[in-house]
Amino acid sequence: MNIVGVLIPIALLLGLLGLAAFFWAAGSGQFDDLDGAALRVLLDEEPGEPPGPLPPSR
Amino acid sequence: MNALTPVRAAAGSTTELVVEGMRCAGCIAKIEGGLRTMQGVVAARVNFTSKRLRIDHDAALDDEALIAAVARLGFTAHLFAEASESPARRESRRLAKALAVSAFAAMNVMLLSVSVWSGADGATRQMFHWLSALIALPAIAYAGRPFFESAWTAVRHGRTNMDVPITIGIALTSGMSLFETATGGPHAYFDGAVMLIAFLLGGRLLDSAMRERAQDSVAAMLRRLPAEVAVLGADGAVRRMAVAEVEPGMRVLVAAGDRIGVDGVVEQGESDADRSLVTGESAPEPVSPGGTVLAGTMNLTAPLTIRATAAAADTVIADIARLMEAAGQGKSRYVRIADRASRLYAPAVHTLAALSLVGWLVAGAGWHHALLIAVAVLIITCPCALGLAVPVAQVVAAGALMRRGVLVRDGAALEKLAVVDTVLLDKTGTVTLGRMEPVSGIPVLEEDRRALLALALATRHPLARAIATALEGDGVSPAIASELKEVVGRGVEGIVDGRTARLGRGDWVCPAVTTPTTGAEDADAQSETSFAWADGAVHRIVLADAVRPDAVAAVQRIARLGLSAQFVSGDSWPVVERLARRLNLFARARMSPADKHEAVERLEAAGRRVLMVGDGLNDGPALKRASVGMAPAAASDVGRQAADLVFFGDRLMPVPLAVAAARRTMRVVRQNFLMAIGYNVLAVPLAIAGQVTPLVAALAMSGSSILVVANALRLRSAAR
Fold first, then answer.
1. Quick check: is B382 in a domain?
2. Which domain holds residue B420?
3. Cα–Cα distances in Å, from B448 out to B94, B460, B478, B499, B691?
4. Catalytic residues of B, which ones?
5. pLDDT, tens only, B150-167
6. Is the separation of the CB atoms in B409 and B403 below 8 Å?
7. Does residue B713 lie in a domain region?
8. In this structure, are B470 and B490 located in the same domain?
9. Chain A residue with Cα closest to B131
């Protein structure tokens, strides 16, 4: 039975990690454009051009 | 950096556009890449899921320039008049986080509960119960806030809503379970409480996604007016003055291509006015001294001097704004079906739980036992499936409609659309496409076509633009023209390959030749213009406002749905009559915005449920007043903002399609209600009899929710 005392905290910790990851993802806009991400991988971007929404640095 | 570039404005601004026709990765690359090379654009980012385009740019670039730039890339864009971070979106984000927390807690508590149900007892059960409490209580405190806050607001105002029984149920369940845990009792309902919150939050989240967005149409409309106008003083000096300060009798100068800021009478100058914003009429109207012009219309070809006849607050456009506000208030607030259900539901649940508590006390059970049973009744009757019944169906149906080109802006719109029995159709821009297209007379020879395009591109006149668009669509490239000049009120002329060519009014293009009439007047002809070489034959180009290609089929389908349809148009009778005959519809012409509003009001007062389909500013009040408003995506800002549904593309079929889909949706919603209530009817006697253990509660709750969701998923093919 003692093994439960170890496994349950571990399980909870892992679950909390997942929850924290979701909070981060929701806060940083990872879910804003679900279909676009699948298509963007196909774009040929010039090396050096910033990939994301950042403006080209000048 | 280019020396001619104006100093980058400190105040950059951001514009959000809705873009039609994006289908693939190539489209994203084309739009983003194309805009980034445009001067003044800092960044462009496409959101493919919501079909939006967000552009960071210099404040000097206006919306129209950006929309034109997107059009040059081959896509149609409209202004998206909504704050990027709306309250509805913030609410959705908050609910999503709460749902994540409660779902996480529910899964973990359920794991512990399963082992308790399968026979763990003694110290193990005790430890698992304490662990469950440890996970569940913080999760309930965090994830339950949306319900607690709403219930508290309702109770404070002496009302009750769906959230009150939910809050009481959750609080009692948690309290009882904690007591059970502390005293070593066999039953703890932590799993039930957390799962309840998770299911309910799922329903709320979907509902929030469908919530109506702020309809700030009046503000959008008044933005169409220039902020200030050039006023010609008595001493001949020109001063800039805010529109609001203009008084009747002042003389106002309007340059060609500018929007007119005041209602007035023309004193000097001859020009054409594009009045489509106010009247919905697509053909430009010539104006000359003595004629009247309206605020919000566009002065197209030549400068005008106007004597103002009305102060800013008395212009026609300001009247429409007031009418729309009144229409928004006069519209009886529709009570959503879920709210109606909960009005009956909440008192019933309270009474039932209280009755079983009293009943068991009277029957001689102890306080502890009686309370446990009352809690079980509250959990069992909690409107889990009921909370999911409506939003899931609406979200699935809205998704199906979106794939067929109809954007549902307000979830309640589907409910209202299902009971509509009368359809009012505007003509210009709704049944027709609202843009002029050449129907005959375009020259065949390549050199003629290239010269014509060169001339057409030299002016902002709408007819010339229509010709240019059509020719460019055919892949014609403009010839090189020199000495291009625009003759006010007549047309344009230029020299191509050493020969003079003219595009404009027939009697000016070739005064010597009387234009040959084509015998019977072309049925839908609305405007015409002529093109000729100085020494050549005259091409008489006829342009008409093209009818949407499937208009006849769509109107027939509307009739098959049992709806009575009629035309309400601001256009003149002969124009409306021809189309009405073709579509076999009852029609009314020459209707002002107030007339349309009144027509809707009279029908609604007579007990009809009206679907208004219109696009222009002139339809705004009627769109708002009608039970449901629907507008094409190409409509004016005002039309789109006032409407509950927006349809994309050149077809009219989405209108009957949306009605049919709405009816299917409501059928599924009613089935869902039946299932949810049927489940309660079955389970409540068990709960009252004291037979509901935590296991039964958990099974019943998830079972009915899954059933309801599965039934709603059938709506994925609702739009057909």
1. yes
2. 406-433+548-663
3. 62, 20, 10, 11, 89
4. 426
5. 889 988 988 777 788 788
6. no
7. yes
8. yes
9. A8
